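Recap from last week: sequence in, structure out.
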Amino acid sequence: MSESIAELSFLPMQAADLDAVLAIEAVSHLHPWTKGNFTDSLAAGHWAYCIRPQVDQVVKGSYLDPDILWAYCILFPAVDELHLLNITVSPKLRQLGLATRIMAAIEGVAAQQKMPRMILEVRPSNAAAVALYQKIGYEQIGIRKNYYPADPQLGAREDALVMAKSIKLEA
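Predicted structure tokens:
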């Protein structure tokens, strides 16, 4: 799939989107967010977006169908930084550069909103995500000990790498 095939459309996540979001979440994460986690984020006013192909490029029944959810993200705007809480691309659409394009769009929003920094947590075991963030300029700034649930049988937890990137703001 080339860059020119489809422009991304960022649509505010609605309660009606949650079934499609949860279907992707369930097959994407060892410890997926629950419907309650998403509902709480929406209620808290986090910036939540569903990413689909733009409607003017519709090919019904294909992945260019705007009814098909490609990805989603949840962002928490703080005073001087934008915190990425969740970004997930549909498993069938991974390795196509979508996450890179989504991150560039999110960084554009941060710049528009005059937020000079993006911050996120990622599991060290999620090598693909760590590599992506490093490739696009994120640097590790810390570790959150025992941040993620890991092995339910052992009750073990996994640390989180805290990564950040400075966002260039227009003067």
